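check this one:
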Amino acid sequence: MSVDTPAPAIGLTEVAQVTGGGEGNGLAVMADGTARSWGKNVTGALGNGTTEERWVAGVVPGLANVVELAAGEYHVLALLADGRVMAWGGNGAGQLGLGSPSGPQDCGGDPCSTTPVAVPGITNAVAVAASEETSFALLADGTVLAWGYDAYGDVGDGAGVGTGCFCVPTPVTVPGVSRAIAIDGDQNSAIALIADGSVMTWGKNSEGQAGNGTQTLTGCECSAPGVVTGISTAIAVSVGDYADFALLANGTVMGWGDNSDGGLATGSFEGPEVCDGPADFGCSRTPIPVGGLTNVRGITGIGRSAAALLEDGTARSWGYNAYGELGNGDHGTEIATPGTVSNVSGASSLGAGEYMAFALIGPSQTLSVAFAGAGKGSVTGRELSCPPRCSGRYPQGQTALLTASPADFAGFSGACTGTAVCAAKMDSDQTVTATFGVPTGTKITKAKIVSKKKKATFAFSAPGAITGYQCLLIKPKAKKKKRKAKASKKAKKPKFGSCKGPKTYKGLKPGKYTFKVRALDILGADAKPAKRVFKIKPPKKKRR
């Protein structure tokens, strides 16, 4: 059975992310950090401790603080806010990352886990992705881990494993990939968006998915991690079965790979090139513009088809349509140009499984990044890479993860605090300030001088991840005595001392004072303290 036009999913409200698996199941992250699942369950992909199908959304037990879900053909990954990764479902290729392609349970003769288990050794992930039987985790330092099926070089080794389970059941680092800010995977290939706007791919390349002008038909039919030709301003990436896509900063989309089902939306099922194979087919081994699309804010591969979310909240789809995955009501008819997805308006994101697509309907919120401090650095995360792209839009309720570099990072402030990964809950528009180096911009925001009470009070502030303040009051110089005093030790230079605002000084004698204050962070103090010169006037003499 298939659904040709989008219809509401029963019992799902306050959803932050939605996606689907190849086995025919759906998955959602809720705004409260829990997860829901529904659909087929042969290998335990619903994560509820059974292998029974469930056709309405139910809770995945034992999960909290979920940020993102990703699904392969038979397994699911969950990224938690603390950087850990949980996995469940089939494990025949070691895709659960447990070090072996066996157990821990049996699902009709196939190794599996019907409940979530922790992927060992991962504590600082910021994104997850899955291809058919391979898993990926993007770490806070911009590197990528991969594990599971590897017959097509899925883990980035450029050769593939050809014996035993054809797998690498323990997470390994994908070589040559650094400063990645987003990842995706499907049908034995993977893609990474790099912070500078370039794109890297690896894995199966039999249809030109590498995007570098080549097509590999011998050996493992695979390609080691390499840069996609001619892309330098990408802000999002997605992978279909045999074609890859990159969303550019100007709102257009580039695609490469197989076009035999209209997957590149060229208006034709032919060309623009002819790729070799069992039967010659239309393809492009290098990126080309997809379907004349503009004002795009999101892109997703749907097996052998794809969909784009536009800035106005509507969606366009193209390609294969045997199961109604284009959502246009025309079951079974492939299309080679982007067409409108029926009943979708006000969407904030798209999600997809092998032959299914989802639109998350509801508001989105803006996350903006600002900088403070004397140093320089960068902040990266899905939807932004700052500088130059310092804002992104996220579905309401979603948790956005940000990381900062380089080493002189002093911390986040605003929507999140600390030096670890920033997890900003997008309940409303948010601003995050990243401080690099020592503070700058300490200001005295208020000063109240009361000579009559011999008192002075100061309020002060500074931008960024401030850990405290230091104050200094330079008092008036004492008047020189007429008689020569005995030689004394050299007067000590006044020093800054720890203080909190507002700072009040009492019992001040008449004279001219200088008040200074400087902000502190974990790396040191503001090199240019704020200063205020003031006077305490002597009391007026009473008239006789």
